[in-house]
Design a protein that fits this description.
With 293 residues, the protein is α/β, with parallel strands linked by helices. It folds into 2 domains: 28-113, Rossmann fold (3-Layer(aba) Sandwich), CATH 3.40.50.10860; 139-272, Rossmann fold (3-Layer(aba) Sandwich). The protein is built from 10 helices and 11 strands. It has helices at residues 6-26, 43-59, 74-86, 105-111, 123-130, 139-150, 170-178, 198-204, 254-257, 271-287; strands spanning 2-3, 33-39, 62-68, 92-95, 159-163, 187-191, 207-210, 228-231, 235-238, 246-249, 263-264. Strands 1-11-8-7-5-6 form a 6-stranded parallel β-sheet, sandwiched between helices. α6 packs across α7 (170-178). The structure holds nicotinamide-adenine-dinucleotide. Nicotinamide-adenine-dinucleotide (NAD) binds next to α10.
């Protein structure tokens, strides 16, 4: 069994990005600039946004954090989006989800100009992705592809089973791995909460991408020998007696699955590490006007 070390890979890519920024600045250009909008005080969202902002600073990107209280009106938030759309000093921006219930997330996502949608959540980017056109890929699927590319994981003709069909992970990674490209050219089955015989699908899989949000759902008895396992899940489970009182785990039961897997991503230290890096890669593309000229 080999462990796909997301931490090491993310470090390497950050160093490459940092070098790119240095070159841009040395040539008289300005550093790529990412803005993040955070609404309310949700602790998980605060941690995610802080990570994104810090990661920018570490590699020499400019970053701006715009905060609004949880009771901000939808029209005020849409104004913030409009200003960022127009601000030529901002290359790309994200609005951290989830938003408070009184705000329509779809309306906010649609208001972001696709050219600045470095999260890749706008339907224009999603549609371009589905058609194989240049676009900003959503960060987590992009991170998985990068991991596969850098570790030369063969996907052509392989049976891939994706568990989960969310718009940010399951559905896009399913589309991407079935595209005529590398990584891709795989035969993809997307399983979800209404799938019958999930274990039969899993036992056939050469590659499993688990994005369900249920701690340690995939067990060793459900997978075949030599399987490649990409565990996207990030779950908190109680761990009495530890300092924090909880531990993080994936959607895959690492202890029973890893002895059968040829490659497996750990949690923490796996796919999650690549997610922020993918956002930075999109921001660099935005600064270079690589996708939308
Ligand atoms: P989601 O809650 O939007 O979707 C979960 C999916 O799992 C649904 O499509 C549902 O049909 C499926 N599902 C639920 N129960 C099932 C069952 N019993 N059998 C089969 N399928 C089932 O999830 P999401 O936003 O895609 O996130 C999934 C997991 O990935 C979560 O743990 C989340 O924290 C994690 N995540 C990690 C990253 C990262 O950077 N590594 C990014 C996004 C999400």
């Amino acid at each position: 069994m080999n462990i796909l070390d997301g931490r090491q890979l993310a470090k390497k890519i950050r160093a490459e990005l940092s070098e790119e920024v240095n070159k841009i600045v040395a040539a008289g250009g300005r550093a790529p600039h990412l803005a993040a909008v955070l609404v309310g005080e949700d602790p998980a969202s605060q941690v995610y946004v802080r990570n994104k902002v810090r990661s920018c600073e570490k590699i020499g990107f400019r970053s701006t954090l715009i905060r609004r209280p949880a009771d901000v009106g939808e029209s005020e938030l849409l104004d913030v989006v409009r200003q960022l759309n127009e601000d030529e000093a901002v290359d790309g921006f994200i609005v951290q989800l989830p938003l408070p219930r009184h705000i329509n997330e779809e309306r906010v996502t649609l208001a972001i100009r696709p050219e600045k949608d470095v999260d890749g959540f706008h339907p224009v980017n999603f549609g371009r992705m589905a058609q194989g056109l240049p676009c900003y890929l959503p960060a987590t699927p992009a991170g998985i592809l990068e991991m596969m590319r850098r570790h030369e994981i063969q996907t052509e003709g392989r049976e891939v089973v994706v568990i989960g069909r969310s718009n940010i992970v399951g559905t896009p990674i399913g589309i991407l791995l079935s595209r005529k490209a590398y990584p891709g050219n795989a035969t993809v089955t997307i399983c979800h909460s209404r799938t019958r015989g999930l274990e039969d699908h899993l036992r056939r899989a050469d590659i499993i991408v688990a994005a369900i949000g249920i701690p340690e759902f995939v067990k060793g008895s459900m997978v075949k020998e030599g399987v490649v396992v990409i565990d996207v899940g990030i779950n908190r489970v109680e761990a009495p007696g530890t300092e924090k009182g909880y531990r993080l785990c994936g959607d895959v039961d690492f202890d029973s699955v890893s002895p059968k897997a040829s490659l497996i991503t750990p949690v923490p230290g796996g796919v999650g590490q690549l997610t922020v890096v993918s956002l930075l890669m999109n921001t660099l593309k935005a600064a270079r006007r690589e996708i939308y000229v």
